[in-house]
Write a structure and sequence with these properties.
Layout: H1 3-16, H2 19-33, H3 35-56, H4 63-78, H5 80-112
Length: about 120
Amino acid sequence: MSEIEEMAGSLGRALGRTPEYRTLARALESADDDRDIVALRNEVRELERRLQEAIAGGKEPDKETMEQFEAAVGRLQASSVYQSVVAAQSNFDRIMHRVDAEIHKGMREGAASRIILTT
């Protein structure tokens, strides 16, 4: 395994230990265990599939399907379980944004270095 892969694994383990990741994992597990949320997500996916199928076929989606889709999405977004997932994902995304910025900073510094590493 290369040094970069080892460092990536180490970063992944560190991210997995953050409170933000653990909160996200719990929120996702809670959503997966909630039958109402699972049924609602399945309904949204099915309606979305029907809408995409119509669009791909060059047709305008029918009004009833559009209204059903909007209503289902509204019910999903109103759910406290769903809101917990969204909030947890947002918090973890902030961490990942900071990590990404640091990686890019390190890449710029590495590119400016005269030392060439072989992989």
